[in-house]
Amino acid sequence: MSDIAPKLGPIEGDSSFEIRSGANVCRSNRSGTGVENQEEVKMKKSVFLGALTVAGMAAGVAAAGTMDDVKARGKLNCGVTTGLVGFAAPDSNGEWKGFDVALCRAVAAAVLGDGNAVEFVPTTGKTRFTALASGEVDMLARNTTWTFSRDVDLKFEFVGVNYYDGQGFMVPKSLGVSSAKELDGATVCIQTGTTTELNLADFFRANNISYEPVPIETNAEAQQQYLAGACDVYTTDASGLAATRATFENPGDHVLLPEIISKEPLGPLVRHGDHEWGDVVRWTLNALVSAEEMGITSANIDEMSAGTNNPEINRILGSEGTLGEMLGLDAEWAKRAIKVGGNYGEVFAQNIGESTPIGLARGLNAQWTDGGLLYSPPFR
Ligand SMILES: N[C@@H](CCC(=O)N[C@@H](CS)C(=O)NCC(=O)O)C(=O)O
Description:
Elements: H1 5-8, E1 19-20, E2 25-26, H2 37-62, H3 66-73, E3 76-81, E4 89-90, E5 96-97, H4 99-112, E6 118-123, H5 128-133, E7 139-140, H6 148-152, E8 156-158, E9 163-165, E10 167-172, E11 186-191, H7 195-206, E12 211-216, H8 219-227, E13 233-237, H9 238-246, E14 254-256, E15 264-266, E16 269-271, H10 275-294, H11 301-304, H12 311-317, H13 323-327, H14 333-341, H15 344-351
Parallel strand pairs: 3-6, 3-7, 11-12, 11-13
Antiparallel strand pairs: 1-2, 4-5, 8-16, 9-15, 10-13, 10-14
């Protein structure tokens, strides 16, 4: 971790840094009813101090020009999770695989011509923002929810949404619970520094029920604690619950409760102020989404890039127009990005889709043409 980490994270023993709720760098309280008024007052003070620190760092680092740094380094430093199978985790050969990993590789292929030119930097819910603000990573592709305070206060730029999600609850079937509203008095495993922590407090408060948080830092730890019975419930993004349950020995012994208590638009982010770099990451994601909409797949991309009778496909794949040049890249940037892992739909199907153990339906993540929310702006 970079040496500026302590500036961003909560400082032990300094009560003014106990909760950075608005910025989602928080420590759980164990009072059982979520965030209390007294702590909200402290939060305001710490958010102000934290914002100054982060703004200073982000501005300093962004001025350097991330694209030039990445090109000079010959490698993209991509911040991912510490491990969430299907989204980002090393396989048995130590090779990073997953839905978020595919986006890192696509950006590396667009900028550096090589989808393997990526240093995957594991980050937790707590360390991810420090890693990005300090310049330790060039981007985050890590189950991170786009919120007002992360954008405005922490000074990051979410360049799009690659997974529309919401927060859910998982319980052992043996608990006999069928609704989150029946969880009064439950112990809840929850990752610190997340929106999850804040939504949980809101949900229990709104329903006038109490809980005992069991704070944990990584998904691996959550899984361990939950399976050991240290908490009755595990709550996080519904996609994360599905991914975690898929790794259990007996997934059928655990149920996801029907309530989805929040909106969690998950997407890649970069530092505020470096628009050239933000554009590259944004349009790489858009290229994967548009490719699916237009029927460009890893199987037909070579053929299509020779030219088709659809001008937008030609502009994406570089046989017409100068979009690559406008980005500071060559004509084939998007072709390379799409070729690495396929279009958005291929990446989804291969890593987290219905035919994988994670088994996620496209749902909100279907193309707008299929009733979903995926909608890339036009390539023109
Ligand atoms: N989307 C939420 C939660 C993100 C989060 O940290 N999720 C956990 C649970 S699915 C995760 O990705 N853990 C992976 C890890 O521990 O490295 C946020 O942005 O705060």
